[in-house]
Amino acid sequence: xxxxxxxxxxKNSARxxxxxxxxxxxxxxxxxxxxxxxxKIIIIALVIVIILLVAVMGYFIxxxxxxxxxxxxxxxxxxxSQSVQSSSEGSDTGSQSQSKTTTVEKSxxxxxxxxxxxxxSGSQTIxxxxxxxxxxxxxxxxxxxxxxHLYVSGSNGESGGVDWGSHSDVETRSxxxxxxxxxxxxxxxxxxxxxxxxxxxxxxx
Length: 205
Known about the structure:
Blueprint: H1 32-107, E1 110-128, E2 131-141, E3 149-154, E4 159-163, E5 173-181, E6 185-204
Antiparallel strand pairs: 1-6, 2-5, 2-6, 3-4, 3-6
């Protein structure tokens, strides 16, 4: 071992220089660099192991989360299906209700059951069936007469009509009335000095 102060060559086992007495420093052991290399390898290996552990844990956590989400998604789909089904059922019900309403409206309307017309003077007797009945009548008179008229009267006491006085305007006049009867009724149409007249019967059905 060479003394760093005087340069004297000493034995490798010497702790002090035999020439000047200077304390000798032991040389670095052979293969010292290999120890440092081993430490680096161990550190790298530990880092790789840690990365692998993190990756494995992440994989398992992701798998568990996907398993938990699937039932919720399925439940949402089932709920959506039930909502669609309920909505569809509600739509069907609405259609049925609308159809029933339309049927009721069609079955209840004023429908003509007879129309009579003529001119001049005279009378007619007709039979009108039972039900809710509406009678509409109108006439146009011959000029310069004070007794022009059109009267419609029934056996049940229901009646309506139009007439003109000597000073009335010569024009078309009209009238109407309704009644309800559980049996057929006989009506007399009486008209006098008319240019034209018309009587119409309707039943609410």
